[in-house]
From TrEMBL:
Its main location: mitochondrion. One of its GO terms (molecular function) is NAD binding. GO terms for cellular component: mitochondrion. InterPro entries: 3-OH-isobutyrate_DH-rel_CS, 6-PGluconate_DH-like_C_sf, 6PGD_dom2, 6PGDH_NADP-bd, HIBADH, HIBADH-like_NADP-bd, HIBADH-related, NAD(P)-bd_dom_sf. It comes from Sphaeramia orbicularis (orbiculate cardinalfish). It is found in: Mitochondrion. This is 3-hydroxyisobutyrate dehydrogenase.
Amino acid sequence: MAALFRGSRNLLRRWNKHVDLAFVSTRSMASKTPVGFIGLGNMGTPMARNLLKNGYPVIATDVFPESCKELQDLGAQVMDTPADVAEKADRIITMLPSSPNVLEVYTGPNGILKKVKKGTLLIDSSTIDPAVSKEMAIAAEKMGAVFMDAPVSGGVGAASMAKLTFMVGGVEEEYHAAQELLTCMGANVVYCGQVGTGQAAKICNNMLLAIGMIGTAETMNLGIRLGLDPKLLAKILNMSSGRCWSSDTYNPVPGVMEGVPSGNNYQGGFGTTLMAKDLGLAQSTATNTKTPIPLGSLAHQIFRVMCSRGYANKDFSSVFQFLREEEGQ
């Protein structure tokens, strides 16, 4: 009788194990359903590539069809419009340059919300006005979809290596569903609160980044004019209290570091136009909240002037070159 009991218990244990494995397998397969990706620029392309690397089928589109070629060659399905993507995917990530682009992609004639399915999770990684994120969340909710803002920090290098930081705003109950996808593209995923708080965190970060880059460029320029070797100065700064991301990871002086835009005539990276746009968002929100940002305002003006002086399409670290050229005027 005891032997029969043991045999039944072992059989039950094997059955439970089989059921558990089947459940895990089913859940894993469900999690690998297609993901839509809209916006395949300098940031969007490596982000979507990392989704493919993690086994997610990607359905993509971009306003410039030629931007889709790399992903298509890697196996992504390319569609003509955001609405077409929404028809085929119930999880969609957007990575777009500005608020008007987000409005067009979501609410335009061929926008996501024209064909979005009920229950779809919409994750916007663009850096835009928090008010626009809230507007999109309301519009999505009316269609039975969920919108979350999840802007990123880290730049093109971090996007390529899946080391971005995501700042997420939205319904907390949906955060884990978003996190599953975002961890394929980033090393840090932080829940900030309701819709718009992700954008708030990103705007604050980029204002500090701009101020820090200008300070690093000014410091390096002064040191060079005082006769210091730029590599030596950077080394000293990076072992001293002046150390910052702009000095030790993204130095703006050509020849000091490899693999950064300053070593490639300021090509690639984070464009001056985009930095000026983000600082404009900081200025606007500071005005609305009556918050004094004297250095942020000055940084905004500097990057706006750079845009009018031929630096618009160069990386924002070209502020070093801009300051050098100002010497001769």
